[in-house]
Amino acid sequence: VYKRQGSLDGQFVALNSDGSLKWRYSAGQKIYPSALLVGTSVVFGTHNEELVALSLEGQPRWKLPLQDVVDASATLGPDGRIYVVANGAYAIDLLGRMHWHKPTAGHVRTAPVIHPARMIIIGTTEGSLIALRPDGSIVWDVLLGGALEGAASVDDEGRIYVGSGRGEVIQLDPDGNILWRFSTGDEVRATPAIARDGTIVVGSYDGFVYGLSPDGEVRWQVATGGRVRASARIDVDGRIYVGSQDNFLYGIDQDGSILWRYNVGQDVDSTVEIGTDGTLYFGSDDGGIHALRDKT
Questions:
Q1: Rounded Cα distance, 260 and 277, in Å
Q2: Given phi > 0 = left and psi -120 to 50 = alpha, else beta, which region is 142?
Q3: Fewer CB within 10 Å, N- or C-terminus of the chain?
C-alpha cells in the first residue's frame, strides 16, 4: 500500500497492509499530488519543482527539473508517456526525458485527463480549460471563468465535466462547446466523479455533495457540515465515499442517502483509494493515513 496523498512534511512513505512503515523517502519540500504507479516505478511531483521516480523499494530512479511547483498528480497516456502539469503541461517518457513543454498563462493545478479523442485535458488557475494533442499543440482553449482547481472528468460519450472557482459545474462536448452550467453556492474545487448510471457526483465549498444528471439537473444533494474539497470515489456497488472539512468521511448510497459518517477529527480533503479487498484508504489534516472497512 503506497501513501497516495500529499505530505506537507515532504515525506513520501510506503506502508504495509497492516499500516506499518515499509520505507520512507524525503523530498525536501511539500508533496501535494498523489503518486502514479507506472510498472515498477512510483512517480510524483514536488514543490522542489521536479518530477521524481522511485523504485518500489523507495530508491531514486530519476528526477526531472521543471519550471514551477507541481500541485497535481501525473497521468500515464496510452502512448506510454507521462503527462504532468506545473507552469503548463509536460510530456515525459518513462526514463525521465522531456519530449515537450506547453506553457500556459496561469499555473496548472489540475491533473491531466486523457480524452478518448486523443486529447490531454488540463485547466488553469486563470480559468481556461485546454485540450492538447499528443504532440503538445492546442486543439481548443475555452475560458470558463473562475480558477480551475480540480481535474476534469470524461463520460462514456466523451462529454467533459469540470468544476470552477465561480461555483459552477460545467459540461462541454469534445469540441470544447459549453453544453450547460450548474451553479452551486460556492467554489467547486473537486473533480467530478461519474457513476455507472451517469450521475455526476461532486462536492462544493457550499458544504453540499451534489448528484447531477447528465443534463445538469439535481438528482439529489447531501448536506455536510463543512466545505467539500475532496473528490468523491465510487465503488463497484455504486456507493460513494467523500470527505468534508467538517472532519467526517461520508458513505453515501447511490440515491443520495447517507449510509454512515466517520469522525476523523480533522478536515478530510483527500480522495479515498479503495483496496482490492474493499478497504478505504485516505489521508486527513491530522497528518495520518486511515484505513476503514465499509460494513454496510
A1: 19
A2: beta
A3: C
pLDDT in tens, 142-164: 999 999 999 999 999 999 999 99
Q: Are 244 and 225 in contact (CB under 8 A)?
A: yes
- Segment 253-276, tens digit of pLDDT: 999 999 999 999 999 999 999 998
Grid cell in block for residue 43: 512517480
Residue in 171, 163, 220 with CA at minimum distance from that of residue 187: 163
Quickly list DSSP for 231-290. PPEE-TTS-EEEE-TTSEEEEE-TTS-EEEEEE-SS---SPPEE-TTSEEEEE-TTS-EE
Give the predicted TM-score (pTM) of the model: 0.94
Q: What is the pLDDT of residue 161?
A: 98
CB 260 within 8 A of CB 251: yes
- 101 burial type by CB count under 10 A (0-12 exposed, 13-18 middle, 19+ buried): middle
What H or E segment, with its residue span, contains residue 93? none
Q: What is the distance of C-alpha 245 from the center of its chain? A: 17
Please give the grid coordinates belonging to residue 263: 469522525
